């Protein structure tokens, strides 16, 4: 037991040093200072997140907008199309449709246009643009021959590249005229009609009156030639492999009524010979298309975000290596490892958040700009737009986690020696 001499005081125990603290305001100030010290690098680091979030929002927005437009067009086309099939048994006979089918269909309320059509039963036809061709080559081997009445042509809603459609005059007289699909015309080398070109089918000439650039219905006619039904019946007989069919274009909302009335209007004596098919419900297929496209493009957007995350992680790690002496000085002045970790993690999170906000704005602007240019209705899902800045924040947080932890493990003495 020690004793104190007279006049001596007991030495005081030094007070413990309070642990250093890093307030949130100081943390944000330090992180902002670190970012502003190297503005060029900060911008380039943030660019990865900007591109990822921009792709995320733009791709999902454009997918929703495009599929909505496709769905609307698909629904309108399907809801205004009625087909009537020749359901009579047997073949090799005259079609069950009357000769004035176009006029009978046109008198139905709600019908815009309608008529009959079928693939012409001609086996391996020799089709060429010259009368002296004696063997089929690749030029006309894939060209089909179709018969269609003037009403069926109007129901197809064709777009003409040049020329005109044949009319009731050609139909009544059974004229040898034809329409060429754009692909068939290219195969035959016909692009202009000012020289009155002709197409020869097994040596029989047909004057080309028009070239179809596109059709809303019966797209198979674009790779073929179309002739009047009266001409087809006289030259090649009744349809064999594929029965005749009536194609009807209706006003929106009238398809179901027209489908019920068409067989009786065409054959009041035997409506059972004809079978009308109303438009199917397109919602299931449209929803499937929407789901498939959204899933595909969502995967691409996630890949973009992953690429942006690797960019932030790489740049943040390089910044840690370059700022080792600064980290050592901060540690020597009392900064704890968690303070260093929090500083670098805040910097990467701030870059991710700012990149997410900028990328979301660019994505929304891209969707709106595309919709305006294409005259579409922009569709932006809140589930894709609202979480997008948060996705940037999470990306920056996760990307900076490892570099921040590594910065916190830097020893002050080893860092100051560098």
From TrEMBL:
InterPro entries: ABC3_permease_C (IPR003838), MacB_PCD (IPR025857), Macrolide_Exporter_MacB (IPR050250). Residues 42-256 form the MacB-like periplasmic core domain. It holds the Pfam family MacB_PCD. GO terms for molecular function: transmembrane transporter activity. It is found in: Cell membrane. GO terms for cellular component: plasma membrane. The chain crosses the membrane at residues 43-63, 296-321. It comes from the Bacteria. Keywords: Cell membrane, Membrane, Transmembrane, Transmembrane helix. It is a multi-pass membrane protein. The keyword Transmembrane helix applies. Residues 299-412 form the ABC3 transporter permease C-terminal domain. Belongs to the ABC-4 integral membrane protein family. This is ABC transporter permease. It comes from Streptomyces aquilus. The lineage of its organism: Bacteria, Bacillati, Actinomycetota, Actinomycetes, Kitasatosporales.
């Amino acid at each position: 037991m020690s004793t104190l001499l007279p006049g001596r005081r007991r030495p005081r125990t030094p007070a413990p040093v309070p642990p250093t603290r890093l307030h949130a305001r100081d943390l944000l100030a330090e992180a902002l200072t670190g970012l502003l010290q190297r503005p060029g690098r900060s911008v380039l680091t943030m660019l990865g997140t900007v591109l990822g979030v921009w792709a995320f929002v733009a791709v999902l927005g454009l997918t929703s907008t495009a599929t909505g437009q496709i769905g609307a067009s698909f629904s309108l086309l399907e809801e205004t199309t009625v087909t009537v099939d020749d359901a009579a048994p047997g073949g090799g006979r005259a079609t069950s449709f009357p000769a004035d089918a176009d006029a009978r269909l046109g008198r139905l309320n709600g019908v815009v246009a309608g008529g009959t059509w079928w693939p012409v039963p001609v086996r391996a036809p020799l089709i060429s643009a010259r009368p002296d061709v004696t063997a089929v080559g690749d030029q006309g081997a894939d060209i089909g021959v179709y018969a269609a009445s003037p009403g069926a042509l109007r129901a197809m809603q064709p777009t003409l590249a040049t020329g005109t459609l044949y009319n009731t005059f050609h139909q009544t007289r059974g004229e040898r005229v034809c329409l060429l699909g754009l692909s068939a015309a290219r195969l035959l080398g016909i692009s202009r009609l000012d020289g009155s070109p002709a197409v020869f089918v097994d040596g029989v000439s047909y004057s080309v009156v028009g070239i179809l650039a596109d059709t809303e219905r019966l797209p198979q006619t674009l790779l073929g030639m179309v002739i009047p039904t009266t001409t087809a019946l006289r030259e090649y007989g009744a349809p064999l492999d594929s029965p005749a069919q009536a194609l009807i274009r209706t006003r929106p909302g009238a398809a179901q009524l027209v489908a019920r009335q068409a067989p009786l209007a065409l054959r009041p004596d035997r409506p059972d010979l004809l079978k009308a098919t109303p438009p199917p419900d397109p919602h299931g297929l449209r929803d499937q298309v929407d789901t498939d496209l959204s899933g595909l493009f969502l995967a691409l957007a996630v890949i973009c975000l992953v690429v942006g995350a690797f960019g932030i992680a790489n740049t943040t790690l390089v910044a840690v290596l370059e700022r080792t002496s600064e980290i050592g000085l901060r540690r020597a002045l009392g900064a704890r490892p968690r303070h260093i970790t929090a500083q670098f993690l805040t910097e990467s999170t701030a870059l991710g958040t700012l990149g997410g906000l900028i990328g979301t704005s660019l994505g929304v602007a891209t969707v709106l700009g595309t919709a305006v240019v294409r005259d579409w209705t922009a569709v932006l899902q809140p589930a894709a737009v609202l979480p997008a800045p948060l996705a940037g924040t999470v990306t920056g947080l996760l990307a900076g986690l490892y570099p921040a932890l590594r910065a916190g493990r830097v020893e002050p003495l080893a860092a100051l020696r560098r």
